[in-house]
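Task 17 of the worksheet. Students: predict the tertiary structure of the chain below and write it out as structure tokens. Keep your answer in the requested format; marks are given for formatting as well as content.
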Amino acid sequence: MLPLFLVLVGTLFSGVQFASAAGSVGVVSEQTAKYTYGISGTVRDSNGTLTETVPYTVAYTEQITIMQISGTNVTFQFYRDFLNETTEGGLSWVDLSDGNGTGNFVVISANVGTGDMLYPDWVNSYYTTEGATVANDTVSLIYLGEPVEACHLGYVNEYGNYSADYYWEQSTGLILGWEIKGSEDVDDSEETLILHFQRVGLQHEFSPFIDNDEYQVKVDSSSTILGFEFNQTEKKISLDVSGLSGTSGHCGVWVPEGLLSGSFSLSLDGYSLVEGDGYTVTYEGAYYKFEIPYIHSSHTIEIVGSQVIPEFQAWMLLPLFMAATLMTVMLYRKRLQAQQ
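Model answer:
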């Protein structure tokens, strides 16, 4: 189990109101969004070989509700439901003009484009905009099966062992999600921890590592995804999903053929699903796409293939075979010399 060595440090915005273009308010009162906060990770030895993976697991879900808007000041409520059955919540606020408040990065000015300041009136202690946080670019993400334009901020620290990516819905300025990744050396191993915060309904991109290669599995779902795991030995992908009991849910799962292939079997909570009834599968350019409908409660979905990426890559087998053959010849020659 990886130690939780990363501490999330929010970017603090200080300064006073400064004459400029006021922040644009895109959110509306009573607007709500639900999120998941999850953790995944890897451990590599001193040679860089993957020795352990920590499957994606959600620690809590969070709901954010816009409570009040006054000018460019936005007050919102957050409520966290931990999977250990504890809860916490409270109120926070942010001024979309200058970034002051306790809710920085949760809501930013709407319609921020490439190179724009997230909070257009932000100034430093010298009353200049030097050091202001600006958007790297705008990107298109998938939300509930449809494209959504997002403002993106990404950065890497000077040592290269810490990176972060933030995404906001461009039209509203409300957070879509963020991912923070950090690595450190512990006892001759490199431990990497990834923290994921993502709006429910936004397409997930899970990346199982097979030593140094990653194989991206994409998941579109109307459900809250609480866990994801790839088991190479059992040739299996597992998904834990949840939703409001009695409502309709679905998962669309894109599996790279380089990861799993052959004939497939699917199950829901241990019960086998029949192709054409319980799920459909199509082949889409190096991916197998599975569509799985169900009625919500909490479920475990399993996708099992008959073939899985091998423990050793194909290109490694020939050198290994040659080395074994050479060793056999050398031992045989030594035995002959000993007998002479």
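Marker's comment: The CA atoms of residues 245 and 297 lie 5 Å apart. The longest strand covers residues 50-70.
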